[in-house]
Specification:
about 85% helix; about 140 residues; 5 helices; mainly alpha; globular
């Protein structure tokens, strides 16, 4: 039904769109994108675990760990961010540890735990504006 060249073009358009979105995004929006990608990966990993798809589980958990380490944790300014940045770093490190255990032991509960502890952080980030002002009342 779909030609491989048509699929390749569609994929290229998606990549250009994603790349453009990242290039034009504010730092605040970039963090939101990281959280969205993280939860997509965690939910995909959970589904792969439930279906017994070991390779897919590993791929999605690996992506989630990279987002946590190379995106969210690496973006923290521990000097300027004070206690909050330090606590977020500890939370991200804990999440990586739990996801590693989830991968090794095929434990869906640990993936769900990580989702549960990170959702309030992502929600809080979503509720603040780019300048750090609350937008909930707007």
């Amino acid at each position: 039904m779909f030609s491989s060249s048509g699929f390749n073009r569609a994929n290229a358009y998606r990549q250009v769109g994603a790349h453009s979105g990242v290039e034009n995004a504010s730092p605040h929006a970039l963090i939101q994108m990281l959280f969205e990608g993280l939860f997509q990966s965690l939910n995909a990993a959970r589904g792969a675990m439930e279906r017994g798809e070991i390779e897919e589980k590993g791929r999605h958990l690996g992506k989630a760990v990279r987002i946590l380490q190379e995106g969210l944790a690496a973006g923290l300014d521990l000097d300027k961010g004070g206690e909050l940045a330090g606590n977020l770093k500890l939370l991200y490190d804990y999440s990586v540890k739990q996801l590693t255990h989830a991968n090794v032991h095929n434990d869906v509960g640990l993936v769900e735990e990580v989702i549960g502890v990170l959702q309030p952080v992502a929600q809080g980030w979503k509720e603040i504006g780019p300048e750090g002002n609350t937008t909930a009342g707007a």
